[in-house]
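Quick one: structure tokens for this chain, please?
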Amino acid sequence: MALLTTLALAACSGDDGGDAATATPSAGAASGAPSGTTGGTTSPSASAAPSVVPSSAETAGVDPANPPDPIASVTIPAVSPDETDPKATLEVDLLSLRREGRIVVATFAFTPTSTDTKDGWLYDWLGGQSWQPYLVDTTNLRRHDVLRSSDGRYYRSNYQGSRFASGQTWYAYAGFAAPPDGVSTLDVAAVDGAPAFRGVTIS
């Protein structure tokens, strides 16, 4: 895979402060981060708004008309874009964990539930927190963070790319250095502070 000539296969950790650029998987092209504030915009009515953000599905390589069933799911507290709904939640689904040569690609879906009528980035729904998923190889006691190239491009969806509102699903992917061939399961930490998905089989 040509991508591996530019990606640093060593684990990278730390907050990148937002995605100035992202590397993309073979399934689609990631969008760059737009300029502007994170306050969000008023979303269309529930009947008019699509249930899926199409650009996110294309980037993550998901068919929005026939998405895969989640391998695992967790619902966590969220912060609505307008910060007006203290009961806002975010459903986090792990859709796939697949080995592609020397990397492992995880695919996720995020669906908020809120009375807030504004849309926002994943960054907003996470309360102004960057998205830093990681994998844990419990066999070799190693943590695998999102891959980053020598020019600072992260191999993941841009969490300040497209906005989504309550009831809409935003798809995302993230790539990590693959564990040794003998490792068949990994723990997946989809969001900081949320329970990890334990013992997920690599396909």
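The radius of gyration is 16 Å.
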